[in-house]
Specification:
The chain is an all-alpha fold. The chain is built from ten helices and no strands.
């Protein structure tokens, strides 16, 4: 009897590990599905203006008339894809999770799924409004800060992640770069909505430099 009790613990540990591993996979799958829904919602305004009333227009006329909608779709799609890329790089390092990380990830996903609303609100207007631009950029700032919070928490909890790969450094630089860029854009939008949106042009080079800084010279 005692032998069976002694053997129960070791048999349970692999089972618990497998359950938590499956749950981590479900968390990432659920997050990916939410991001996919947000990306799909972005295209709905484009679908709305491609109806029977525009059947007599050429494609060039249609795009010229709704250039704002097309640009909003392209910019927001690329930004969400960039957020997802940063999220993927973080979560592919994980071997476990805890409830606080799960809460932060849920909040991050909620902010991502909300983004199509300020996107549609901003670009449906005939002229840029300060409040709409601040809502749009502020939403992105919240997403980037929640991504930074997740990365910071994982750095604090090394038991949640695999040992670092030789030749790479575990750093908060990429999410910090995103947060700083969106903070600057949001502040700039308070003075000029157009200026705030133009700051988004800095996103690709800022992210590229941030990724380079987290790599060793040998890479």
């Amino acid at each position: 009897m005692s032998d069976e009790s002694a053997g129960a613990g070791p048999r349970q540990r692999p089972d618990v590990h497998q359950r938590r591993e499956r749950t981590l996979q479900r968390i990432t799958a659920f997050t990916d599905a939410g991001v996919a829904i947000a990306l799909t919602l972005l295209v709905l305004p484009l679908v709305d203006f491609a109806d029977q009333s525009t059947a007599g227009q050429s494609v060039a006329q249609l795009f010229a008339e709704h250039l704002g909608d097309v640009l909003s779709f392209a910019v927001s799609f690329l930004v969400i894809a960039l957020f997802w890329r940063t999220h993927r790089h973080l979560y592919e390092q994980l071997i476990d999770y805890d409830e606080r990380l799960l809460i932060l990830n849920t909040m991050w996903l909620m902010a991502v799924v909300f983004l199509p609303f300020p996107t549609a609100r901003l670009f449906v207007e005939t002229h840029l409004r300060t409040d709409s631009a601040v809502l749009y950029l502020g939403n992105m700032l919240v997403i980037s800060l929640l991504a930074l919070a997740q990365a910071w928490w994982v750095v604090r909890r090394p038991e949640l992640r695999a040992p670092p790969i030789p030749g790479t450094s575990w750093a908060l630089v990429p999410p910090v770069a995103l947060s700083v860029t969106f903070a600057v854009a949001t502040l700039a939008a308070l003075a000029s909505p157009a200026a705030g949106l133009l700051v988004l042009v800095c996103l690709p080079p800022a992210q590229f430099l941030a990724v380079r800084l987290t790599r060793s010279p040998s890479q």
